[in-house]
Specification:
Elements: H1 2-28, E1 68-69, H2 75-81, H3 86-102, H4 111-124, E2 126-130, E3 143-145, E4 150-153, E5 159-164, E6 167-170, E7 176-180, H5 198-217, E8 223-227, H6 234-246, E9 268-272, H7 276-279, H8 282-297, H9 317-336, H10 338-343
Antiparallel strand pairs: 1-4, 2-3, 2-7, 4-5, 5-6, 8-9
Helix pairs in contact: 3-4, 3-8, 5-8
Length: 359
């Protein structure tokens, strides 16, 4: 009882003290300071995403490190982007397979080496063949040097193989042939034609990864459970929390039952944070990014096994394949035959392209 009186007495003293302070302020004529309003709070979700992971506009030349020239773009990034979206990798494989199917093997250049060499050129815009020579000076065979780790030196015909930071191998002068795509800013290394479609490739990948994580998450972290019902104890709230946690992962989208006799309808609210299922436009993003990738590779969609959405389809597949060969594969064949001029003999040659007759 004494403790209760002491608390009440302390409260009354505090109230009377506040009253005297306000009375003194009124007598002195000083205006009472108004309560300052709460400051607005702004925050963002997640970290900022860089616009370009390859820094496409940051380079003006290939940097020379004292031994060799560094590529203008990170080659490991292009290697990872190769498998980022199915339409990107499938378009490159289609060109590679057509070239390999028409290639006529040579004693110096096998079909497997040619296939790997072509894949390097289509992905990195650079492809390298090493021509080791015997003691008599004749070429033994043509070997592929991985474009991911091959670097060009300052001197003419000087090349290095750098698989890691502490490992390097210098090829014999004049023993490496470099096939490169043209670039506007430098002429040391080539750059692939599809660079303009990399953003569409990453967008396609991001949409797929987001939707996959969305389904794996289960509860999707897309709502706030607001519980104010006094009929539910803290034990009931913990049990409900545990049931929600167990609804995530495999076997998700489960139904939950909450038994609360005498509870109020407004005692349990489900407040959605974002309706990601209805607003992510998954199919629209996938289709738009696919069209951009196919436009950069100039591959007819019918040749990639894409199912048309319209009743008319993609037209005659045979005519599309013939036009695709004349516009894309034939020029690539001419580019690849440049090694013949460098070596002095015809090691790259192709059979004529013929479509199978309709049954």
């Amino acid at each position: 009882m004494s403790k209760r009186r002491a608390r009440h007495g302390s409260a009354s003293i505090t109230s009377s003290s506040a009253a005297r302070v306000l009375s003194a302020a009124a007598e002195s004529g000083a205006p009472a300071e108004p309560a300052s309003p709460a400051a607005p709070v702004a925050f963002t979700f997640g970290d900022p995403e860089p616009v370009s992971r390859l820094r496409l506009m940051d380079y003006v030349e290939a940097m020379f490190n004292g031994r060799w020239y560094e590529p203008p773009l990170p080659l490991d990034g292009m290697a990872r982007a190769f498998r980022a979206a199915p339409h990107h990798s499938s378009s490159i494989y289609l060109k590679r397979n057509l070239l390999v199917s028409l290639f006529q093997p040579h004693p110096l250049l096998s079909r497997s080496t040619f296939a790997a060499w072509v894949l390097d050129f289509l992905i990195f815009g650079n492809a390298y063949l090493e021509a080791p020579r015997s003691m008599m000076g004749s070429v033994l065979e043509l070997r592929r040097s991985l474009a991911l780790y091959t670097r060009r030196g300052k001197e003419e015909g000087q090349f290095f193989f750098v698989p890691s930071y502490q490992q390097e191998h210098e090829f014999a002068r004049g023993s490496v042939f470099q096939l490169q795509e043209d670039d506007l800013a430098q002429e040391v290394y080539g750059l692939p034609e599809y660079l303009s479609a990399l953003h569409a490739t990453w967008l396609n990948e991001a949409a797929t990864v987001f939707r996959r994580r969305y389904y794996e998450n289960g509860s999707h972290a897309g709502f706030i459970l607001y519980l104010t019902d006094t009929q539910l104890s803290s034990t009931d709230a913990d049990a409900l929390k545990e049931a929600l946690k167990k609804s995530k992962g495999p076997g998700n989208f489960r139904n939950l039952c909450l038994y609360a006799p005498g509870g109020k309808p407004e005692g349990l609210k489900l407040i959605p944070v974002s309706e990601v299922a209805a607003k992510d436009d998954f199919l629209s993003i996938k289709n738009a990014s696919r069209d951009d990738v196919l436009a950069a590779h100039r591959v007819p969609p019918g040749l990639l096994g894409i199912i048309p959405n319209n009743t008319g389809g993609f037209g005659n597949a045979g005519e599309a394949a013939q036009i695709f060969f004349q516009n894309e594969i034939a020029p690539l064949q001419q580019r690849l035959m440049a090694v013949n001029d460098w070596l002095g003999q015809e090691v790259v040659r192709f059979a004529p392209y013929e479509l199978p007759a309709a049954a």
